[in-house]
């Protein structure tokens, strides 16, 4: 009987430990200013990596590295379309991430950098939408013109 209780206790603590590791990984992601800015931008819809780089004023390799960390934490999904990589918030984020993402819109009001990012996002998407032509893949044209994938 004691062995069964001990086994259940080990399973319980193992599950608890795994949840704590996932939470620590998520908060490590949210603790970085650039990754928080990326999540803030993706709240308004999907963006291409090149759009993110232009809005954040950082080069694409740095954006890609931050996105890799966000993907590993389950916060962001991405898919390829020709030469473009389209990024969006995870369709089914874990409850902890969802709760933290709900706080981002209120942070926009108090953080001038997050608010400026949203303004730049609007300008970048409009500029890219104006530059799209019939050779641009449909998914990218839709992303630029309607900001939905």
Please explain how this structure is put together.
- This protein has helices at 2-30, 33-42, 49-56, 60-72, 95-101, 104-110, 112-131, 138-145, and strands at residues 47-48, 76-81, 84-89.
- The longest helix is centred in the first third of the chain and has 29 residues, at 2-30.
- α6 crosses α7.
- It is built from eight helices and three strands, in the order ααβααββαααα.
- β2 (76-81) and β3 form a beta hairpin.
- It starts with a helix and ends with a helix.
- It has one domain (2-145): Winged helix-like DNA-binding domain superfamily/Winged helix DNA-binding domain (Arc Repressor Mutant, subunit A), CATH 1.10.10.
- It has a three-stranded antiparallel beta sheet with strand order 1-3-2, with helices on both faces.
- With 149 residues, it is mainly alpha-helical.
As for the number of domains, it is 1
**What is the string of SSEs from the N terminus onward?**
HHEHHEEHHHH
Q: Report the uncertain regions.
A: none
Largest sheet: 3 strands, antiparallel
Instruction: Give the amount of beta strand, in percent.
Output: 5-15%
Proper CATH architecture: Orthogonal Bundle
Q: What's the tally of helices?
A: 8
What is the H level of CATH, i.e. the homologous superfamily? Winged helix-like DNA-binding domain superfamily/Winged helix DNA-binding domain
Coarse structural class: mainly alpha
Q: Rg to the nearest angstrom?
A: 19 Å
How many extended strands?
3
Shape: elongated
- Helical percent range? 55-70%
Residue-averaged pLDDT: 80
Q: CATH top level?
A: Mainly Alpha
- Output the strand order for the largest sheet: 1-3-2
Q: What is the rounded distance between the termini?
A: 56 Å
The CATH topology is: Arc Repressor Mutant, subunit A
């Amino acid at each position: 009987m004691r062995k069964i209780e001990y086994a259940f206790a080990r399973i319980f603590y193992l599950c608890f430990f795994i949840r704590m590791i996932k939470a620590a990984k998520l908060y490590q992601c949210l603790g970085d200013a650039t990754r928080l800015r990326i999540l803030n931008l993706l709240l308004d819809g999907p963006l291409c990596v090149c759009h993110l780089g232009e809005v954040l004023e950082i080069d694409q390799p740095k954006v890609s590295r931050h996105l890799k960390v966000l993907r590993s934490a389950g916060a962001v999904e991405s898919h390829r379309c020709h030469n473009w990589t389209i990024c969006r918030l995870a369709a089914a984020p874990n409850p902890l991430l969802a709760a933290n993402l709900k706080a981002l819109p209120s942070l926009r009001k108090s953080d001038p950098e997050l608010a400026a990012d949203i303004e730049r996002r609007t300008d970048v998407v409009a500029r890219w939408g104006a530059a799209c032509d019939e050779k641009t893949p449909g998914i990218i044209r839709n992303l630029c013109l309607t900001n939905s994938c």
